[in-house]
Design a protein that fits this description.
Blueprint (H helix, E strand, L loop, with lengths): L10 E2 H6 L1 H9 L4 E5 L2 E8 H4 L7 E5 H6 L1 H9 L4 E6 L2 E7 L15
């Protein structure tokens, strides 16, 4: 279990699209960003070091620009069974969008409200 780094709040998918570069910087600095769609937790943006420790069965890789432009398709991939989408910037993995099936934050720091 990983604790969410304060003061990270749950980020709606629509807000993620608008502020992806801001959230990328936060995650690269070590924060975990929970993402929701209509109040349902759909995944987490996590640093590479955390994602590499997870039990990942199926994975995809896409650029941050493709991720932003196809955000709904990306989370639908997680919902359909993909465990991790590695997000690249200039050809290098920078962060990961992981499924709620493989990543769990600690309950006392869960920010659902």
């Amino acid at each position: 279990m990983y604790a969410l780094s304060p003061p990270i709040n749950v980020v709606p998918l629509s807000k993620l699209r608008q502020g992806l570069s801001k959230y990328r910087r936060q995650v690269q600095a070590g924060d975990v960003v929970p993402v929701e769609y209509y109040k349902d937790r759909i995944g987490y943006l996590v640093p590479i070091t955390i994602a590499e420790e997870l039990q990942i069965g199926s994975e995809l890789e896409m650029s941050l620009i493709d991720f932003r432009d196809n955000l709904n398709s990306a989370w639908e991939s997680l919902d359909a069974g993909t465990d991790c989408i590695w997000l690249t910037y200039h050809g290098e993995r920078r962060l990961a969008f992981v499924s709620i099936r493989v990543f769990h934050s600690s309950p006392d720091s869960d920010l659902d409200d």
